[in-house]
């Protein structure tokens, strides 16, 4: 990257990034073969080839959510290529799922090994016939980053699957404790086949308004972010508590935010004590991502842990989007300093694999209960093994914190310069968001940035969320700043 040229470009916007006289360095080396900056070949995105492919796909599958068709073979590092030859700086990263860059050479090297080839062409049913290297692979991948205090792993296919199976684990644990570890009764065994109690008990999972936990049947009953996710689907009668709607900046509204969190904690405890269906578990995101990047302080989560322990309710922390380093620690809940670890931590996205961490007491009393054909994918565990090695070798958590600090400071300058457009900046590490005046404004800014060579995404009603890769460095963010400033200048003229 030609840093001096970039600095010259961005310094012309007075009042923004007074600290940009020197872009901070990170311990992460430059990505080999990475593009230097976005390249635009078509006036519109999607371009003509993407539009043609969309029409072709439409005859076979619904393409309406697609931004454009990607050319992954020509994508590099922090940049995604499309089929029309455009190169975009990707700060959305497959909805927060890419950890160490497109076509990472270490992953390419590993994928050519006999070990990977065998896992690809001989995909096992892991619960029935695990491969001989499966215990060692678990140790070298999942357990290398296991949350403190959790020593067991359940592997799954996706984030929704991880949460769905976690709910099952919670319900089985609850009933096991309730029956004092005794065997199932004949009545339980027969009644469950008719979907009736006592074999099919009436139990619930408490979630939070604006939360998102998946689109499978059980998780959808705990998803509360957008109506379009839930319409026409039968749902369980499960409780939803209010997640704190904090005021920003946090350091300015400490007293008010403490009162908000106390009210929310009181509501959670009231629901657990009074809901007409016993609450077996509680699920919460460290940051409500899909619902608008809503934050809470460690005090709130410490309170949740105390309440769940007090009432015998399992605490599930949904780290599908926040896990694997995005907040500057491997797990976002590490920022909370809990008195005891969560009972279950679910994961997917940047982990490449999916599943949940737990302890032995959340293993079902009999085998074949929390189970499916694949039980995850050894290839994804092999991929995770390489990703974890690269995170540690290249000090990527340090890079996340350095880049995140640069991103937050720059966006704060934009918030000062364009207060009528940018507001409610919040974030941890590079897990960052800010609001626009309306959802229409947000969508227009996302589209404008894409036409300038930057891929971002929305969340909630009017927020833009930033989800850079762990290998994103400040000079990548400076490229975004340049294009973001040009976009906001255009919008200021229209307002």
From TrEMBL:
Cofactor(s) essential for the protein: pyridoxal 5'-phosphate
GO biological-process terms attached to the record: gamma-aminobutyric acid catabolic process
GO CC entries: mitochondrion
Pfam families according to UniProt: Aminotran_3
EC number per UniProt: 2.6.1.19
Top-rank lineage group of the source organism: Eukaryota
GO terms assigned for molecular function: 4-aminobutyrate:2-oxoglutarate transaminase activity; pyridoxal phosphate binding
SUPFAM superfamilies: PLP-dependent transferases (SSF53383)
Keywords: Aminotransferase, Pyridoxal phosphate, Transferase
InterPro entries attached to this UniProt entry: 4NH2But_aminotransferase_euk, Aminotrans_3, Aminotrans_3_PPA_site, PyrdxlP-dep_Trfase, PyrdxlP-dep_Trfase_major, PyrdxlP-dep_Trfase_small
Metal-binding keyword on record: no
Family: Belongs to the class-III pyridoxal-phosphate-dependent aminotransferase family.
Name of the featured protein: 4-aminobutyrate--2-oxoglutarate transaminase
Organism of derivation: Polysphondylium violaceum
